[in-house]
Design brief:
By secondary structure, this protein is an alpha/beta fold. Helices cover about 30% and strands about 15% of the residues.
């Protein structure tokens, strides 16, 4: 999917919450090694990632964790700080872009940015509605089996990447 998107001229940017750092399961150096391995594996299939933006924070204080990272922040999705950085760093036209994610946090962040936000049924499959007991959960503009199917739709229907909430 990454190779296909890149070959079609799309930027491929990963924006990810990595609470494992705050919880003490991995260090920043260890996370960078994981990202390096991810890039290596994707590149074996011709998939090049333009950038990886990550949030190492988590708002809960836990013993054995990394206290400096146990904070509330704007970069943890559904916050939009990392998306805003990517838009600024790459000069991204949000009206011609799409976010593909597996969590409602992803969908919420994309919607807050005005991005078409497509969910996938892999990973968390956009199911964590219990995290929204006091309000309606974010709703993906479309759902797909996986990232490959979502990318194929994007390439087949480029005009559909207008503002979120607009009919396809």
């Amino acid at each position: 999917a990454v190779r296909t998107a890149r070959e079609a001229g799309y930027l491929t940017i990963i924006v990810t919450n990595r609470a494992q750092v705050a919880k003490g399961f991995v260090t920043l150096a260890g996370l960078e090694m994981i990202f390096a391995r991810l890039r290596e594996l994707l590149a074996e299939d011709g998939g090049i990632v333009d950038a990886i933006y990550f949030c190492p924070h988590h708002p809960e204080r836990t013993s054995g964790g990394a206290p400096d990272f146990q904070i509330a922040c704007e970069c943890r999705k559904p916050g939009t700080l990392l998306l805003r950085r990517a838009v600024a760093d790459f000069g991204i036209d949000v009206s011609r872009s799409v976010l593909i994610g597996d969590s409602l946090r992803d969908i919420g962040a994309g919607g807050a940015m005005g991005l078409k936000s497509y969910g996938v049924r892999t990973g968390y499959a956009c199911r964590a509605v219990e995290r929204y007991p006091d309000r309606a959960p974010p709703v993906p503009d479309r759902m797909f089996a996986d990232v490959g199917e979502a990318v194929a739709f994007c390439l087949a229907h480029p005009a559909n990447h207008g503002q979120a909430g607009q009919p396809d």
